[in-house]
Amino acid sequence: MEADSDEGQRGKGRRIRRGSPATAVRLAELEASHRRKALLRAAATIVLSWVLIVGAFYLLPIGHESGLRALLRLGADIALVGAVFAWQIRRIAVAELPELRAVEALGIVVAIFLVAFSAIYLAMSHQSASTFTQPLDHTRALYLTITIFSTVGFGDITPRTDSARLVVSAQMLLDLVVIGAVVRLLFNAAKSRITPASAPATTPEL
Questions:
Q1: At the N or C end, where does the chain have fewer CB atoms within 10 A?
Q2: Alpha-carbon span 40 to 181, nearest angstrom
Q3: Nearest residue to 132 (alpha-carbon basis) of 121, 148, 145
Q4: Does residue 159 sit in helix, strand or coil?
Q5: Burial letters for 109-123: b for 16+ Cβ neighbours within 10 Å, e otherwise?
Q6: 173-194: per-residue pLDDT in tens?
Q7: Domain count within the chain
Q8: 171 lies in a domain?
């Protein structure tokens, strides 16, 4: 019995196993050393994801895109972001550390969202340099997307054509969805994964 008790105490500081789903663990329940490793692993996952996603944006050729094709591609990109979001929700549902998985998921979804719109803006600028107040390259397109996402709106690069204004307006509306609904859904998924395993069973007093 004593050995079982010692093993149970060591369970909170165990290394997180990968593979089949296991009982969800709160980050605060880990020992300090394992918690630091888990945080570093999550940070490395987010940084690597951003490097790969943004790197692909810079390396892949971006062609010309008319206003109509840009709007069609917008629908495809929204579907892509939605698919990645659904996939991340499923990963949270089986994660041993759902809190960190939710943070990783948010970082990945935001990176894909920003790069998707940057690619649309860049392609529209390639089609016509007068689409925006400045011709866009990869850096300027990413910069424009981030300023819109962060609601800073410096105004140094603005859309000139109606199709560009429609795409920018769509991003503004979707920004609210990402910042509000997506963040809430990801962390609610993590919370629901933890609560059943962590909440102790209680019996009502008679």
A1: C
A2: 27
A3: 121
A4: strand
A5: bbbbbbbbbbbbbbb
A6: 999 888 888 888 888 888 888 7
A7: 1
A8: yes
